[in-house]
Write a structure and sequence with these properties.
Helix content: 10-25%
CATH class of the largest domain: Mainly Beta
Radius of gyration: 22 Å
Mean pLDDT: 82
Distance between the termini: 59 Å
Strand content: 25-35%
Shape: globular
CATH superfamily of the largest domain: Galactose-binding domain-like
Order of helices and strands: HEEEEEEEEEEEEE
Number of helices: 1
CATH architecture of the largest domain: Sandwich
Number of domains: 2
């Protein structure tokens, strides 16, 4: 029996093989993607219609499990209402001058471009809080970055802070909040990730 295939059949077979390979690669990529299925429009009261979900232990409701405190950072009770539609609870991190609090690992990729956190500053309204994002990834390109945010006496969401990702590369981020101004008295609560690449 002849095993010679017509050229058009060989072409179709080659195309099917290529598509199958790409399909498997896409499936593997999707399987590794970060998953935040319970996102809601928690910052709608602040006119942000984006969808956000609490990062792991982002609300501190489990006693700050996985967080790292240094320099005098402590958990405190603060019953003042947070200005968002998420879960309202009283626990916050107090950051005196020089103190820092680092979040548990947060999964990030190109579908998670930003995060926001609730802030309250009982000190000078011009005092800054430093936010540093570090990444755990095999690539040497994953350098951390820092930015400063401000808040006043009432609880407010921070401005949106970008996360650095590259071509759907999944990585682990840890977010550190550091009181860098002696005139500030910051409280931090409710770390939310934006799980939609809308920008």
């Amino acid at each position: 029996m002849s095993t010679v295939f017509p050229k058009h059949r060989l072409t179709l077979l080659a195309m099917a093989t290529v598509l199958a390979v790409f399909g498997c690669a896409a499936h593997a990529s999707a399987a590794k993607a970060c998953s935040y299925p319970d996102a809601t429009q928690v910052f709608a009261p602040s006119k942000d219609k984006g969808w956000y979900q609490l990062a792991p232990e982002g609300g501190l409701e489990g006693g700050a499990t996985g967080w790292t405190f240094a320099g005098g950072a402590t958990l405190v009770a603060d019953p003042e209402a947070r200005n968002h539609d998420g879960v309202q609870e009283e626990t916050a991190v107090s950051l005196p001058y020089g103190a820092s609090a680092t979040s548990p690992p947060v999964c990030v990729d190109d579908t998670t471009p930003n995060f926001r956190v609730m802030l309250r500053n009982l000190g000078d309204q011009h005092a800054k809080l430093r936010v540093t994002v570090s990444y755990e990834v095999a690539s040497a390109q994953a350098k951390g970055h820092a930015t400063d945010v401000r808040a006043e006496e009432d609880w407010v969401p921070s401005r949106s802070v970008k996360l650095k990702t590259q071509q759907d590369e999944e990585r682990v981020a840890r977010i550190t909040f550091t009181a860098v101004d002696p005139d500030g008295q910051y409280l931090v609560d409710d770390l939310y990730v934006d799980p939609f690449a809308r920008y």
